[in-house]
Amino acid sequence: MRNYLLKRLAQTIPVLFGISILVFSMLHLAPGDPADLLLGPDATPEAVEDLREDMGLNRPLIVQYGAWAGRIVQGDFGRSVVLNRAVLPEVMKRFKNTLILTAGALAFAVVFGIGIGILAAKFHQTVFDSAAMLVALAGISMPTFFTGIAAILIFAMGFQVLPSSGMYPARGGDFFDLMRHLLMPAVTLGAVSAAILARITRSAMLEVIQQDFIRTARAKGVSEDKVVWIHALRNASITIVTVLGMQIGYLLGGSVITEAVFSWPGLGQMMVRAIQARDYPTVQGGVLIIAMSFVFINLAVDLIYAWLDPRIRYS
Amino acid sequence: MKIWNSGAGALLATAAFFGAAAPALADETIVIGLQAEPVTFDPTQISDLNTSRVVHRIYEGLVGLKYGTYDLEPRLAESWEISEDGLVYTFKLREGVKFHDGTDFNAEAVKYSFERQTDENHPAHGSLTYRGAPSYLGPVDTIEAVDDLTLKITLKQPSGPFLARLAGMTVKIVSPAALKAHGDDVGQFPAGTGPYMLEEWEPGIRATLTVNPDYYGTAPEIEKLIYVPILEPVARLSALTTGEIDLTIDVPFDSLTELEENPDIELQQGASAHVWFVALNTQLSDPPFDNVLVRQAMNYAVDKEGIVNDILQGTATVSSGPLSAGYGDLQNKDVRKYDYDPEKAKEFLAEAGYPDGFGGCEFMVPESGSGMQAPIEMGTYIQANLSAVGIDCQIKTMEWGAYLTAYRESPMMAQMSWNPPIGDPDIVLNNLLNSSNFPPGWNAGSYKNERVDELVSTAQRLSDPDERRELYLEAQALIAEDAPWIFVDHGNQIIAHTTKLKNFLVSPNFDLVVEGASYED
Amino acid sequence: MDTLMHAPKTAAKNANAPLLEVSNLSTEFATYAGTLSAVDGVSLSLQPGEVFGIVGESGSGKSVTALSIMGLIKKPGRVTGGTVRFKDEANLLDKTPAEMRKIRGGQISMIFQEPMTSLNPVFRIGWQIAEVLQIHREMTRTEAWERAIHLLDRVGIASPAKRAREFPHQLSGGMRQRVMIAMAMACAPSLLFADEPTTALDVTVQAQILDLMVQLKEEDGAAVMLITHDMGVIAEMAQKVAVMYAGVVMEEATVEELFDSPLHPYTQGLLDSIPRKKSRGQSLKAIPGIVPNLLHLPTGCRFRDRCAAAHSACALADPPLQTMPNSTRKVRCWLHHPEPPK
């Protein structure tokens, strides 16, 4: 097990290396020049040229990459051109906010998605089942952007029960405020995942419930609740966790739109801004952090997998 | 007793959760919804409007703008004298002014703030890039602190816009003590002389400014300003109508009527120096944009009134030249105007030798962009207008960052807009239309009229406002006649605020000046 | 010595009272094509300690009969009629699910054909056995675990403490069935349903498992209802046999009677299909045709399409299950009926 972990961790190094090359070249080969964007309308061509020189943008790409990668290895992510601060602490601060949003969305997706999926399977072919699956289908088809705007119009502007956007109110900012502000974006972001999880959970449960060992459990006198929530769910959870792992990735990616709609000060919002401004150090640093978290999520999912399904063993 | 307490607490908590969305704030505080978060409080490092809307409150320059106008007025300099040859500017500085960190403002501080940007060996130069310095401080030769309150700036050559530029962002005066203490990170620990100072800053969440108790001038009535970023226009609108914020900019066009009918909200439209145009490559013979008749025909062909009313919902005025009404008497209103007239456009085309029009022009349109209003809708509208008189254009859309680069590579036909940060015509007429700024400069259409070049270049070297005005008026008339652009519109600033906010005036430079406003419950 | 192994046995009180008495049990399944009767008026009776075999081809309704008695029929199936009397209990079919759960796994338990799929793959086998004890014996987790190890030992699994911590996929097929038996016998039931307990196992293992079942049954005094298609297993284990075909009992007799003188042509066909020493080298006779579609049963006798002895009466009416004169054996065939229809 320890060897497996070390092996997996070692594998992340070439992955991150590859990602860094990919991001670097995509950014630098894309049209658009940070000097132009930074200087804006008031700049002379000479000033733009000076700035390019200053920022090292006139050096060959490979040299630029080497310099950047060399610093990254030493833990120096560089300085954001837009924020005018060191990239790493800034990226981590925003990433923390993204994680809060993602965790909220995940909690919603897990509780409602898996919960509804299990109940739909339990009450298979009833009105509840059909209604839940109809709602889930609607949830999958609804774009986050639309759901978000609709939520703002209904709950913030219409009923005025929830704040329009942001992470904290203009003043104050305790845990309670955070939860109020988190509710709409988390549900908006988690809606699609909840719907997908509900459908997956339902079909996984229905399949498991057909299995012989469920009949065995019933023959043992196990109560119907325990049959569903312990015997069946534990087996179905192998499928559910696979999908859940993919959904975490989706949630991290999907947070970009949600963060923009709800002005959530997360990494996605920061990255969009950085890309627009061709703030290379920030984009590169952000992508590396996200890539690393993806790698770790995958590793975690694999480990949970092995824990859930004793037939899987890693070495 | 204890049980009762916790029960009541939970009840209150529930009420707070689902109750009123916005807790009432103290009278002296207003919350301002910005389109994006402010990113730094170092005036030399700012390249976006939303950041400057906050930073303008904290720092001041030698000169400032009169409330709601582009007119210059004394600020940290009480008065100034300009030598006959226009080379030496002697500023008499205000006495007894202190920075927010308690240190004194004086001539040395000005020198320190300026030379930090221009002198690579200056102790506060650090590793930053001073992007504004070439344009704002480029003409400066030497800076001399004659005494504590006298500052002498000598220019390399006379510069007409120099004084106006001293109201700009990068030349605001930063406390030397703060620079010494924080170096490159001074943007996180601002210390200026402005009427407000930074109280709390949580990046991405809020920036709270509180009134400067030692301010030398009239203290603002509103004690606290809280700036919150709200990226989504619908959310800004929602936050305003529910009272979460008191003031905001850029609400969705289609909600304007609704806001006008809302008795709690006051909607203000103010002129700005903004200009929106389509640059035509005047050096090209295919398509024949080198023919002035063709360019004039295109100006007749485009229904600018229609764009302003149908797409921009009346939030702009039709343009007849590079300068908007925001420039006051610097704008030449008596220029040739191109009212929408497709028949006339066809006549002009026929006269130019294209009775059936022509095709093959590529029309560059950004997907979005600062000040670009509704680029794709407007581009499509213009394309349809031109097609109606026989000119066929293909639209090519691009992401803004890529667009800015492509724009400076001699495009055939391209949209652009300009939000001049200062009120001097030089920044428009010289930067965009002087032949000295051919690509990769911002004169993307390579427009060249020798008389215009001469007028604009001369005005750049003069310092007498009246003399300069004459030259700019003539230049504007010539430009209108030459039609190097399709002149489309000047966008208005749309500001919506609670009716409790009184005496708020829209500033032409896109700032949100709240110093003169008051808040009444 | 071992209180658990000596659960009270009603059989001891009244030797003549049957342990289980099933009358007129009917179970239907709703399908898109219509409702089919999987079990159509089955009556059976089991004495305490007896091994009762139910034999028949697949689809004959023998498993459904067992599941119906245990209350394990799930939608779209439904028990539509009959009574099931077990010990002193009222009709099992009228009991609530909660009441049935107390009986299942405790007094009546069941082992299934596929040990491979009948154990939950994600739980340790010790846990799966302990669970029964926790439900029916109100044991603590630790007590139940200890007990489970003991039970594994009893069904002949070596190093039971280590095995208890293993998962089903780590065991061989035979061991899994031993685990199933340990689980079924955990609460010393008075009735055990064994549904094709050896069919999925290797021939060598089959005998061991059957021996184990016999041994445990003897020790605990349980009655066994053995469901199989294998006449050989019946011959070895059972005292009484019911032959089922298409949802009904065709013939019921003691093992000796049935093997010595099968009355029903179907029973004869089943016996002819068993490989025997004396017929080695000869080809086995299979019953021609297939089990009829329960939705489209032939009129009259449901076996007549495949019956070599079928005659005109067979098409006219369904024969009743009739007790033979001077005997306890029963048969459902016009050949043995005093007054077949004309």
TrEMBL record, chain A:
GO terms for biological process: transmembrane transport. The chain crosses the membrane at residues 12-30, 99-121, 133-162, 182-200, 248-267, 287-308. Residues 95-305 form the ABC transmembrane type-1 domain. Keywords: Cell membrane, Membrane, Transmembrane, Transmembrane helix, Transport. It is found in: Cell membrane. GO terms for cellular component: plasma membrane. CDD domains: TM_PBP2 (cd06261). The keyword Lipoprotein does not apply. Its main location: membrane. It is a multi-pass membrane protein. Pfam families: BPD_transp_1 (PF00528), BPD_transp_1_N (PF19300). Belongs to the binding-protein-dependent transport system permease family. This is ABC transporter permease. The lineage of its organism: Bacteria, Pseudomonadati, Pseudomonadota, Alphaproteobacteria, Rhodobacterales.
Automatic annotation (TrEMBL), chain B:
GO terms for biological process: peptide transport. PROSITE patterns: SBP_BACTERIAL_5. Residues 72-438 form the Solute-binding protein family domain. Its main location: periplasm. GO terms for cellular component: ATP-binding cassette (ABC) transporter complex; outer membrane-bounded periplasmic space. InterPro entries: Peptide/Ni-bd, SBP_5, SBP_5_CS, SBP_5_dom. This is ABC transporter substrate-binding protein. It comes from Harenicola maris.
